[in-house]
Amino acid sequence: MSKIKVKQVRSQINCPLPQKRTLEALGLRKLGQVVEHDATGAILGMVNKVQHLVSVEEIK
């Protein structure tokens, strides 16, 4: 299974509460923080929901 790196690149200050909770569920609490996840359907769906706040990189 492939892995992805998710990095928070924009602030969550003016975001709706569901988007803030999605970032928290991904493990992102600070700007510039990077987390690694398996590229499952649930994780990719969460990343898609907050795609304007994060950058995604595939790990081989």
Description:
The protein has 60 residues and is an alpha+beta fold. It has a single domain (3-59), classed as 2-Layer Sandwich (Ribosomal Protein L30, Chain: A), CATH 3.30.1390. It is built from two helices and three strands; from the N terminus they run E-H-E-H-E. The chain has a three-stranded antiparallel beta sheet, with no helix packed on it. Helix 1 crosses helix 2. The longest helix is centred in the middle third of the chain and has 10 residues, at 17-26. GO terms for molecular function: structural constituent of ribosome. This is Large ribosomal subunit protein uL30. InterPro entries: Ribo_uL30_ferredoxin-like_sf, Ribosomal_uL30_bac-type, Ribosomal_uL30_CS, Ribosomal_uL30_ferredoxin-like.
Stated plainly, the CATH topology is called Ribosomal Protein L30, Chain: A
The CATH C-level name is Alpha Beta
Q: Walk across the major sheet and give the strand order.
A: 2-1-3
- Arithmetic mean pLDDT: 97
Order of helices and strands: EHEHE
- How many β strands by DSSP? 3
State the helical fraction.
25-40%
Number of helices: 2
Offer a quick outline of the entry.
InterPro entries: Ribo_uL30_ferredoxin-like_sf, Ribosomal_uL30_bac-type, Ribosomal_uL30_CS, Ribosomal_uL30_ferredoxin-like. The protein is of the alpha+beta class and 60 residues long.
